[in-house]
Queue: 4 jobs
Job 1
Amino acid sequence: MKKRKQISKEQRERIFKRDKNHCQFPRCNLMVRKKARRLEVHHIDFNSSNHSDNNLITLCNFHNSKISNDFLAKIRKEEWVNCFKTKLKKERT
Ligand SMILES: [Zn+2]
């Protein structure tokens, strides 16, 4: 296995801040309030070596593992990629 380059602590914090420390999964906010979840950085294009800011988005650990499992099952991958890309675009305009 190839060794992955880690996302720096500074970059993680920048991504979390940009996303207002909220999971960007659709309608996740309410769930986060009910249960304390850990925030993680997700690679939008599922390429874990593409560490550019516009390929990274904040997800809670629950949704991060959920969509990773979807990806392993090879279902809905494109749906998630488009969903998060659209979300990032909206925030910038
Ligand atoms: Zn979530």
Job 2
Amino acid sequence: MVRALTAVDGCHHVAWLATVDGRPVGIARYVRVTDDTADLAVEVVDEHHGRGLGSVLLEAVATLARANGVTRITATVHPANRASVRLMRRFGLVLHLCDGVLEGESALRLPEPARIDRAAVLDLAVRRAVGAGGPLPCGATASSVA
Ligand SMILES: CC(C)(COP(=O)(O)OP(=O)(O)OC[C@H]1O[C@@H](n2cnc3c(N)ncnc32)[C@H](O)[C@@H]1OP(=O)(O)O)[C@@H](O)C(=O)NCCC(=O)NCCS
């Protein structure tokens, strides 16, 4: 499980971490399940709920997903989890109850107005990949996001 969750490559699997005073407090990720579709997930530690972290983390990975050619998203959410239902709907996800959980697959929509500086997120992702000697996020170049 740890191996799978840390196998980020900037293209098929991207994670964006939030820290407070150097401690991790939240993470969002997308994992590509087909060429154009990715599964979205987000988690924030309890004591930082309700401060907008889940929203901005998800917007960061959705921005990178879009830049990397993802046009559709999927997610699975517990029906009682009103915050995540609200979050996922903001990105265009239409959810249906199936075997006790809410599931959906829909076109990815980046919410307007943006709550983050999307160009800065893309720029940071490219710089991080270049600095680490890793692959550039697929389709993105430093000049394309400069
Ligand atoms: C879902 C989760 C990531 C939200 O994180 P968060 O940082 O508290 O989210 P935000 O503060 O950005 O709030 C997101 C939205 O939910 C709303 N919200 C928050 N708590 C709510 C509640 N109890 N009921 C209804 N809406 C709620 C907020 O008002 C906000 O909507 P708005 O921006 O339109 O006002 C967090 O609750 C969590 O980690 N849950 C456990 C993991 C999980 O369920 N992940 C989702 C499955 S992938």
Job 3
Amino acid sequence: MVYNKLLRGKRLSIGEYLNSVLMAGIDLLFPPPALCRVCGRQLVLNTRVEMCELCLEQLPLVGENLCRLCGRPLPASAEPTLCFHCRNTRHFFVQNRAAAIYSGTLKEQIHEIKYRYNRRLAVGLGQVMAAVANARGWIPRKAHLLPVPLHPQRLQQRGYNQAELLVQGMLSCIHLPVLEPGVVVRRQVTQASTGLNAWERRVNLKGAFYVSSPGKVVGKVLCVVDDIYTTGATLDELARTLLKAGAKAVYGLTLSIAVSDSDLAASSGEGRS
Ligand SMILES: [Zn+2]
Ligand SMILES: [Zn+2]
């Protein structure tokens, strides 16, 4: 529903994104076309994003009108400005951008990569993130990527960190340095944040991260990669910790962003009484 509302606004076509990937250069020595990482169909084009056009079309990519801080889509009619959340929150990060809206097929896919061990899909969605971010100039200059660390206990349960798989997918499309693993650690198993409000999420995450070797982050621009941006509590806590350790600036790049009907109503100035 929310997405349908947004669809009425201007939306970039997948063709534009794909073009940019193709323009980025098809490697002639690239192996023969692979299989779609979502549906398994044989790909006709040899692109770095290993997803068929049908599956790409299903992705609810964000439009052009975004909150300038968190990247949340705003109604097409709204002036490009701040969303309701960002008008009421102090952020430690410079800017976050999300490739798509957390809805429909993508919602199911994120569930697949987090709870059904679909690593292949995570890598494919990372490739999409790289294509979209590259086409829209969202990757900060001289940035090091940093997948949001998982607590070792979670890592052991799941067997992988989904944010690292997204980064792996990104790196198969674009060349970027990644902050060494282990420099930033999650020292706290936070309780599930579902059902918590924005303030409770922040309290829940306070002190969750720790920089083990500050020397490795001093003066660096970091681009934190995650699967979803909801209230921004995770990115803010990570940014606060990194800045304290001497990082120059912290940005965020997420596969998806949560958008609700009330966000749209609030950001367009409607629905306030
Ligand atoms: Zn497919
Ligand atoms: Zn915002």
Job 4
Amino acid sequence: MRLFECGSLVPGCEWHTRANDDAEIVRRVVEHMRTAHGETIIRENMIDNIKARITDEKNANAA
Ligand SMILES: [Zn+2]
């Protein structure tokens, strides 16, 4: 599972999302940026910034 925390890009934002693939994460984050942060123009470097901050979520139960 992949995880994106908005706080890594927008300090103080508690929003986060999980999905199985990066494309789905990016789609949701772009929508969040538009609705929550008023980013009506999503630049290509914004997409890169999002992708750079997607992490693999550690499964706490696996150990
Ligand atoms: Zn946010």
